Amino acid sequence: MTFQFHLPDIGEGVIEGEVVRWIAKEGQVVALDEPIVEIMTDKATVEIPSPRAGTISKINFEEGQVCPVGDVLLEIEVAGGSQAEAPAKSHQSSSTTVTAPVPVPTGKPQFVDATASRGRVLATPAVRRLARQQGIDLSGITGTGRNGRITKEDLASGGSQAVAAAPARASYTPMAIPEGGLEERVPFRGVRKVISDNMERSAFTATHFTYVEEVDMTELVALRTRAKARAAEAGVKLTYLPFIVKAITSGLKKWGALNASLDEVKQEIVRKKYYHMGIAAQGPQGLVVTVVKDADKRSIYDLSREIARLAQSVQDGSIRRDELTGSTFTISSLGKIGGVLATPIINFPEVGIVGVHKMEQKPAVRDGEICIRWLMNLSISLDHRLVDGWDGAMFLQDVKALLEDPTSMFMEMV
After folding, report:
1. pTM for the full predicted model
2. Is residue 384 flagged as an active site residue?
């Protein structure tokens, strides 16, 4: 009996998905809930399990092609009639997605595009790519396709109006790399492509500038050393990151222009009175930004637990979409290998990101004498459209002051 598997609705507002990778092949016998295909939408990349046990008889969309929600993605030959006669779309309630109604198989990570626009622009990856090449802002285009999806014809007819709102950028001809000697070619899609698209959007939309400051962490190192044993008794592995989060949220309350976004459609600066801290980290398939909600209201211990929980959820694949979206400001930290400084790319549509770099003992001059101190650099990239250089520098100075005198940080805590 042939079972037709229709691509399920795998996220609010999602109308299609790109086939990133077929895990199973035509003719392969698969078990119930065995992963068979990796699908990428504008919101997430997910592995979808088999809705039936049987043999895959037909695959209707190749890798790189876009399958609309509701279309038959593949067909499975199953034994018996009762199972195959079930409505094809009934599996929507049990297929793998990043939304709450659908369970995610343990150990299978999925990654959400945490830097994507919060808007509801619907377009295929090919149309988005063409719009970028032509410098067209899709938010200014009215789509005439299914469910309001923007088509290539819409770009041709409405692109002239949208170009005016789009950031100026040089046009270029896509570059081909001739085949050479020993090399490997990997399809540019999936999570890596999502990261690329959003880094490109941030770089060509936000007007970046970077400011760097050296921070003397000696007093905080001593405080953490004293507190580690007590934290361990409470089941907390105490790192420096929770203290940095606290110092940054305190600075954001004083310098509200940095905890903001630009509503490009309404042309309004949205200054947020809540503080959801994004923590950029490397996951098994690429860069993700986990979000610590209401960071200003959490204790150091609570921040430690939440940061550790989110990091583990990324690694084991149990992370939820709401834990990867909604940040108002982002911290990028590579820990012990954090380097000397960097110019991190803003997590669009936020207006600022702080890079945390390697802390090490170095000679410093204090009260006219050379001594050994724990020193670390903080770099901050800001969107100069919304944030003046003075505000950005003063914000980082306030963060520096709190880290260098942690007692003052505790006095400011809620």
Report:
1. 0.65
2. yes
